[in-house]
Design brief:
three-stranded mixed beta sheet; 340 residues; alpha/beta; 22% strand; eight-stranded mixed beta sheet
């Protein structure tokens, strides 16, 4: 029985309500093995129900794997500040040193794909650029959807990062926005068959190894759900707030709530909800062809407001959106600045 054996065994213990395990989440902070005895320390925070569940399941899987073993499981309510040599997960990241030149960092997230999250992220970045990027680019967009990058497609321009004299990677500028997306590095026809550590490494490089400079706002386009990329962003980047995107659809609403949990559990402020594809405009009249009320339910459950309702508008996929939609995004940008 070794430390690696213990960690592998504890991967069977999930961190509710996610499908990821407590080792992947970095909750196992200490493992020491001496013969048939093992001492394990697990960070659970102050949630007693969660602590009881994890303790019980951890003890069960360990006893089943090693019937002759003896185990001491200690629960931690605070992350230990020292003993890096004994940590089972990667060393803690000092988020205060990440994107230090960026004043405001806003994540755009959703529970499921297909709700137009990336389209909203790009147009929100453009709205911020109309406010801040008068003489130089003062807004950034980081496309954190490593497996399904779309920012480069939505901007409609083929640009690539460069390297400065200090060998720092410089993101390209589009419409007053500094943009970085995996789509600028990998061909559209090439699938990214990457596992969690590689995804985390890519996001770490985007946030720490790129020369973003001084920015007023950065929009982070997160992939849907609560997978490795979302968790990596939360762990690596000191987010100021997150915007939850949904559509007038019961499934999208339920998954939006599930997707918001990762921010609630990591103390990231949820700024509000944006309902996309909410209606079509026919001669000045709004037709709610997919129904109403779903976004309101999401906002109420999260204790936040609906920040914007965005219509079905084909111009959103271009760099020349309609006057009405541009006004909606300008208002959304101003609201997010006030919330901060």
């Amino acid at each position: 029985m070794t430390k690696e054996d213990i960690l592998q065994t504890l991967r069977a213990v999930k961190y509710p309500p996610y499908s990821k395990d407590i080792v992947t989440f970095g909750m196992v902070k200490y493992v020491k093995v001496e013969g048939n005895f093992a001492e394990i320390r697990i960070y659970t925070g102050g949630d007693k129900t969660l602590a009881e569940k994890i303790t019980k399941e951890s003890a069960e899987v360990l006893k089943n794997a090693y019937p002759q073993g003896e185990f001491k499981i200690e629960l931690l309510t605070e992350v230990p500040s020292s003993a890096p040599a004994q940590q089972a997960s990667a060393p803690a990241i000092d988020k205060s040193k990440t994107l230090t030149g960026v004043k405001l960092k806003i994540a755009v997230a959703s529970g499921k794909g297909g709700v137009g999250k990336s389209t909203i992220a790009v147009n929100l970045a453009r709205a911020f650029a109309r406010i801040f990027s008068k003489e130089e680019a003062r807004v950034g967009l980081m496309d954190c959807d490593i497996h399904g990058p779309s920012a480069s497609i939505l901007f409609g321009k083929e640009v690539f990062p460069t390297v400065d004299e200090n060998e720092k990677i410089v993101p390209p500028e589009i419409d007053g926005i500094k943009v970085m997306s995996m789509g600028m590095l990998v061909s559209d026809s090439q699938p990214l068959l990457w596992r969690g550590p590689m995804v985390t490494s890519a996001i770490k490089q985007f946030s720490q190894d790129f020369k973003w400079g001084e920015l007023d706002v950065m929009v982070l386009d997160l992939p849907p759900g609560t997978g490795d990329a979302v968790l990596s962003v939360v762990q690596l980047i000191p987010l100021d707030s997150a915007v939850i995107i949904t559509t007038p659809n019961a499934l999208a609403s339920k998954t939006a709530l599930r997707g918001a949990m990762v921010f609630q559990k990591t103390n990231v402020k949820i700024a509000g909800v944006v309902e996309n594809m909410a209606y079509i405009d026919i001669a000045g009249q709004k037709e709610y062809i997919f129904g109403e009320g779903c976004a309101k339910e999401v906002a109420q459950n999260l204790g936040v407001e609906i920040l914007a309702t965005i219509p079905l508008d084909k111009t959103l996929h271009t760099d020349n959106i309609s006057e009405n939609s541009q006004q909606i995004f300008d208002d959304l940008a101003r609201k997010l600045l006030e919330i901060k």
